[in-house]
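Pilot study result, target chain (291 residues):
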Amino acid sequence: MLIRLGYEIAIGCTQPTPLILSLDLHPDRRADIRWQSGVTSHPMVPMRTYVDQFGNRCRRLVAPQGDFTVRYDAVVEDSGKPDVVAENAGEVPVDQLPAETLVYLLGSRYCETDLLTPIAWQLFGNVQPGWQRVQAICDFVHNRISFSYGYARASRTAGQAYEERVGVCRDFAHLAVTLCRAMNIPARYATGYLGDINVPVDPAPMDFSAWFEVYLDGGWYTFDARHNVPRTGRVVLARGRDATDVPIVHTFGAHQLNKFEVWTYEQNSEPMAAELRRAPRAADAPLSLSA
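Predicted structure:
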């Protein structure tokens, strides 16, 4: 299956402003790129890439004073299979976990494990460890939080999402991650593209999505507390402890968001050159560009 994806983001800056973009496809998916425009900007500015401590490919640049736009367009190959379901996957005892997973047991900026650990053990202590426990956490978060783009707030933590019972996809992910960590299950936050493939089309404008991954039986598995069903066509941009580590665009100065467009949908055939030059389907959605 082929997936067409990309974005166009425009901001206005009152002075030259450094940016870090976490918008490159994750190195795990770069081999799947069939065509890409490359990241372009208007006006053109130098860009440098680096790989951060979580293995994400990031991009550094300085946006000039005035209006500034960055754009990317690509076609990637995907298996077309939904998220893996491994109901027999069990938990790994903490003393046997690989060292690199231990950071995903700890509290972080948006994931207050100290606050939610008593609640987690009360709710899930008697649930069968492993896949069933993580799924029970997903079910709980899915039913506890009401979704609406109007509920977006960049400062909302997992504890606040638990109390307020409203949020967007990042809040679902943060609360689920926190509850998993509280149960000694390594959990990490993920962002990326998730189009309406093999599901009814959502009339809301397209946006980047957030979900989470847990470490069970020696591997990482994808869970999505917002949708709470296996989905097709996820393309990861970045992973980290929480949204602090992987803001879509991190600005080091004042800015105004002028345009935000995201597209991700199934491409029925190999695109022709003329088609690649045309702007893909796009939609507006709110986004805070600061961490």
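One observation from the pilot: The radius of gyration is 19 Å. A full batch analysis is planned for the follow-on phase.
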